[in-house]
What we know:
By secondary structure, the chain is α+β, with helices and mostly antiparallel strands. Helices cover 32% and strands 27% of the residues. One of its GO terms (molecular function) is protein serine/threonine phosphatase activity.
Amino acid sequence: xxxxxxxxxNTNVGRQRFRNEDNFxxxxxxSLAIVADGMGGxxxxxxxxxxxxxxxxxxxxxxxxxxxxxxxEKVENQERFLAESIExxxxxxxxxxxxxxxxxxxxxxxxxxxxTHCGHSITACVGDSRIYRIRxxxxxxxxxxxxxxxxxxxxxxxxxxxxxxxxxxNIITRALGMGQNVTVDTKxxxxxHDDLFLLCTDGLSDLVENDAILKVVxxxxxxxxxxxxxxxxxxxxxxxxxxTVALVKVQCE
Length: 253
């Protein structure tokens, strides 16, 4: 299978924040996109999210060829390498937190997506940043939120209609930097032609409903305009947080 992908990403401080604690990285030669959201309210969240992007960049540039077989059919090797890279970023953040008052408790979420040459997508997630897949004009969240709301919804303790009455909705139950080890959720999905993947921080997903996100995607021309329009939609809805969006367009032949 011949798989090609195009990746576009951008970030915006939003309308109510003075500092952007989000970071992203696009590694085109590895068909990889990473989005990280430094935890709001924590000192130096931007440092934590930058450690993620720098660690991933370093490991893929220097170690990927050694750790991952040239045989692209070995999807599990690629999946493991992505998870281990995020785990290494977690350890670096945790170490930096120790004994440095100005950096104590800094943390970050992360989502990552890699497209393989043999027709798969690999997703990785820690926290409440998200990855959506748009296929056949329908949108589906393909990562699970590690948040209080996500846990309550998964266990049927509350329902979507109850969310407007819930306080402390932004409590995260898993993030990088909070412990020496972290569990990284990874999944492998079979690709279809024209799949479009959207990676975003909660600066978009908290303010723009899934159906509205889909509407922007379907009505926009080109990936760059789509990213810009999604950021504009979040700002028009209040822009209460930093906003980072990455789009990965896949073509399979």
